[in-house]
Write a structure and sequence with these properties.
The chain is mostly beta strands. It has helices at 9-14, 41-44, 157-168; strands at 2-4, 48-56, 59-70, 76-86, 89-102, 105-117, 122-129, 134-137, 142-145, 174-180, 186-201, 204-215, 220-227, 233-241, 244-256. The radius of gyration is 18 Å and the shape is globular.
Length: 258
């Protein structure tokens, strides 16, 4: 099943970030429901592939893909990759998290990260055992003990947890997630509700809520927009550092997978 809306390139580039109207419920690819626990998780968030246009100062510079798949062992594979090419700069990144969902809580099992392009390439691979309170850095063949595992998430799976929390409690104003880094340290990631907004995206017209994350010491602010009619799928991401725009991602298509 393919859900895709197209606008002329001139309209897409000329319009500012956003203005919009609600889509009809019959066209919404994801069924809305207030409680995940009333039905199976796969009914609330079916397997999908979302494609995003990446922009820098309103110019398209690449694309990103976020997808969720259900594995044979009842685990979930959550994947995100980006491919950017701008002037002489190139950057390809890929993140994959293998998780499970228990009582609306994401339980991470493994996290892989790869980056290549201009500058130094990077690669990380971790495995987690939250019951045993251990994590294994497979790249360096090193096991560490985790002093804190309650709600612990990796750098990708916390995105999925945030979506689940929005589905379960759309009026929540503050979200805090303990996230383990690629070096094994744990830090809280905090997002605050920052209002509602109507957007015009390559995907189409859609109503959203906006969250904000600010890291004062790095002078970095990230804004994330989620669409209630798509069961709080991330539809736009925008980041600013020291007042300078870093990047922007806008949803361009959404495909539900079998």
């Amino acid at each position: 099943m393919l859900i895709m809306r197209k606008f002329s390139p001139l309209l897409f580039l000329a319009l500012p970030l956003i203005a919009l109207a609600n889509t009809a419920e019959s066209k919404s690819p994801l069924k809305e429901t207030p409680q995940l626990k009333q039905v199976s998780f796969s009914e609330i968030i079916p397997a999908y592939r979302a494609t995003y246009t990446l922009l820098h100062k309103s110019d398209p510079v690449g694309k990103a893909i976020r997808e969720l798949s259900y594995l044979d062992d009842n685990k979930i594979q959550y994947h995100y990759k980006t491919d950017i090419s701008w002037l002489i700069f190139s950057d390809k990144r890929s993140e994959t998290a293998i998780v499970n969902i228990e009582n609306n809580q994401v339980i991470p099992f493994s996290y892989d990260y790869q980056r290549e392009g201009t500058g130094r390439d990077k690669y990380y691979q971790w495995q987690y055992d939250l019951v045993a309170k251990t994590a294994i850095d497979l790249k360096n063949d090193k096991k560490i003990t985790l002093n804190f595992t309650d709600g612990l998430l990796d750098k990708l799976s916390y995105h999925l947890q945030n979506r689940i929390d929005l589905i379960n409690n759309p009026n929540q104003k503050r979200f805090v997630y303990p996230v383990i880094s690629t070096k094994g340290s744990v830090k809280n990631y905090e997002y605050l509700y920052d209002g509602k907004e109507e957007l015009i995206l390559p995907y189409g017209l859609i109503k959203t809520i906006r969250l904000k994350r600010e890291i004062t010491e790095k002078k970095r602010v990230t804004y994330a927009w989620f669409a209630p009619e798509l069961n709080y799928l991330l539809v736009k991401l925008y980041q600013v550092k020291a007042g300078a725009e870093q990047f922007e991602a806008q949803l361009s298509s959404l495909v539900l997978k079998e």
